[in-house]
Specification:
Blueprint lengths: L3 E9 L6 E7 L7 H12 L3 H20 L4 E3 L3 E10 L2 E11 L1 H7 L4 E3 L3
Length: 118
């Protein structure tokens, strides 16, 4: 099984001068939408092109839901909500927040980790 690689950095507090530790994930390979579609084809037999169309459609629907003031929920994955900020007093949505579902969090309990020392 692959491991989540991380490193630990010493950080100094901005206000109180205290030091502490910060854990940072080390970027590893990414998995593209096409690669995920190919994996789904191997595992469950859904053709790549059909899976990619569905994934692109879901992406658009999540964005549309956010634009319509809604929260998008994918039950076994998580919740997508707008991240709002003010830009010269004007509301902006520059990002979408994602909160992992309880089901997905349970799966992450099985994760293994490896510290990378510099």
């Amino acid at each position: 099984m692959n491991k989540i690689k991380y490193k630990i950095n010493e950080v100094k507090g901005n206000f109180n001068g205290k030091t502490g530790k910060q854990i940072i994930p080390v970027k590893q390979d990414t998995v593209s939408m096409r690669e995920m579609a190919e994996l789904l084809e191997e595992k469950v037999g859904i053709p790549v092109i059909r899976t990619m169309c569905v994934m692109e459609g879901i992406s658009r629907l999540i964005t549309e839901a956010i634009l319509n003031g809604k929260t998008a929920v994918i039950d076994d994955l998580g919740v997508f909500t707008p991240a709002l900020s003010l830009d010269n007093g004007i509301p902006k949505c520059k990002k979408i927040n994602f909160s992992l579902s309880k089901e997905a969090k349970k799966i992450l309990e099985w994760a293994e980790f490896e510290e990378i020392k510099e």
